[in-house]
Every structure is written in structure tokens, then in C-alpha cells.
Amino acid sequence: MTEDFYRIRRLPPYVFTEVNAMKAKARANGADIIDFGMGNPDQPTPAHIVEKLREAVLNPRSHRYSMSKGIPGLRKALSNYYKRRFNVDLDPESEVVVTLGSKEGLANLAQAITSPGDTILVPNPSYPIHAFGFIIAGGSMRFIPAEPGEAQLEAIVHAVKHSIPKPVAIVVNYPSNPTSKEASLDYYREIVVICKKYNIYLISDIAYAEIYYNDNPPHSIFEVEGAKDIAVEFYSLSKTYNMPGWRVGFASGNKKLIAALSRVKSYLDYGAFTPIQVAATEALNGPQDCVEEMRALYKDRRDVLIEGLQSTGWDVPSPEVSMFAWAPLPEKFAHMGSLNFSKLLLQEAEVAVSPGVGFGEYGDGFVRLALIENKHRTRQAIRNIKNFMQNSDAILEKFEKEKSDK
Question: Mind listing the domains of the chain with CATH numbers?
Fold first, then answer.
């Protein structure tokens, strides 16, 4: 039985499973579910990237084992991206490793650097792998505020002084999944100073660095001088180039951390299929019009969604970055928590969202909506939600009765 296994016992039930099961059941019964739940891009991978994959896969030599740390051309392409985008120099040999998406890289880095009982500082709410990668590796979590700023930095210093053992690492993720918060360069400077002072590693996740809707592109931690002394950063092609199923990501930065991750990976995989890596190289080196089109698409969807939700009486902040809206529960439904609200919205409005509690207990007053439905479907969802809000009293009465009957 799974409860007999130590690492499985440390993992709570995955709350998204309940919502996903409800979605599957509803669809099986003929319901047309409009799904803002998973951050799964719906657009095709750009044609020039797919063509490069086709070209590479026709070469029989590409069918052999690849390189665990990534083919040289792809590591160089990532280095060139950092130089072009952030004016940061990376050595493709010692400061870059290709991962099977950011998720695999984060989990394997956790395995590489965590001893049983080690303390890791992680924002709450945050993307689940940021915490559970280290929990699976035997570490212990200490949570800090999710919003970058003085309160978080003070919490970090407090945790360092009062944690036994002292924290090994801090995880930060900006633009944030799920909260859509972004970090300033001044914030990064301050957290680098803290990590250097207390000899703590800093793990930065910038998977959404190319999804922004203003004139201030998100930053890399490596724009701070000396950050590579203590930091490693993860980046992914999944969202930028509509390549989620291709599973291509990167870790870069501190040579000691990159070497540790590379060593663990060398025992576990031979790297992604070579044609995928060749096509990923084309994504980074080739025309970037597709990235601008991706941003414009999400911005249009964001505007339709946020304006529509506000018209229903649901006041949701408009995100400036990422492909998510982080929505506080409507006042009438706030008492029931995010999981029950998500179930109710699915049942009564045929709209699926992600319950905030799935990203940590401090996310329980929110739900996350991904910008993955087209504008037509989004407008239909708004009509459904408007009806849901207008009938909130009857819906709540029905919910409370069903709860009391159980």
C-alpha cells in the first residue's frame, strides 16, 4: 500500500485531482466545460520549430542516445539568449545544463543538494514542485510570504536566525505562478545580499519571463553582480514557444550547483531526444516574432477575461505578467474555501479553475485562472459566471443543504 512508503507519506493528496475528476465526469455526461485550470498553452508550436524537428528526426544518427547535460548547440543557444535578453554572460560548458522541463530540473537539483532534515525556504503560495521537490528529497519546508518585498526579506532573515538547521536554500519564482507577482531588480539585489551574508543558495524560476504586458520585461537574478556566486536559475521553452509537451528547460548559473545537478542527471537520463534539442536550438536562435505574437494573444485574452469578470461583480486584479489571473474568492463565497468554490463553479457554471489551496494553505482565499481559452470561449464563461453570481443566494442555499445532509 502506498501509505507504507516514506516519501509518499510526506505528500498530501493532490487537490487538483478532485477537480480534474469532476471535470472528467462532467464531460463524460456531456457538459461543455470551459477550462481555465491547467496552465497548458493551447496554441501550436511555431512552424519553423516543428520543421526543424522534422528535418532532424529524418537523420538516423539523431536516434541514438543524446547527452544528459544537453547538446552543445542548445547550451550555447541558451547562453546567447541570456546575453541578448539580460546582458548576462554564461559559460555553456560549466554554467548551463539542459533539463526535461523546469519541473524535472528543480526536482533533481533538490535531490542533488538536500540532506534529510535540511531546511528550505519557499514562498507560500507557490508552484507545487518548488516545495515538494525538496520534500520528496527529504527536506523540510519553512514558508515565507509570496510577494517580493520588505516583509518577505524580513521573514527570510528571521527564518535564517531561528531555523535549526540553518536553511540550505531559498526558492523564488517571478513572474510568479500562481500569484502573477513580479520582482524588481532592487529586490533581487537585496535578496542576493542576504543569501551571500548567510551563505544560502538562491534558486530562481523565471519560466514566465517572456510573458509580460507592459514596457518593463521581467528580470533575471543574474543581472545582479555576483549573483552567480550563490544562485541558479531555471528557464523553460514551454510557455515562450508553446512547447509544453516537448519538455525542454534549462538550469544555469552557479558552477557548483550546475555540476551537482549534471551529476545526478547523468545517472538518471540521457537527455531529451536529440531532434527535440535541435528544434529547441532553432526556437532560441530563430525568428522571435512568434514570442511577440504569444504575448499579444495572452494580453487580448487577459483583457477579455478581467473586464468580463469585473462586469459580473467579481473584482479580479489584471496581471501585468504571466499567463494567470490570481482571483480572490467573491465575497459571498469566501467562507467556503477555494476547493469547494472551484467545485461549485464547475458544477453550476461549467467553468473550471484551479483552487488556490493547491499552491499552499495561504492560497486558500484565491483561485487561479489560466489564459488558455480563446476569446469566444472566455466570453461564454463570463456569461455562465454572471448567471452564477446572480443566482448566488440560491446556489449557496443548495450547497449548505447538501453539506448538512452528508
Answer: 2-44+290-405 (3.90.1150.10), 63-285 (3.40.640.10)
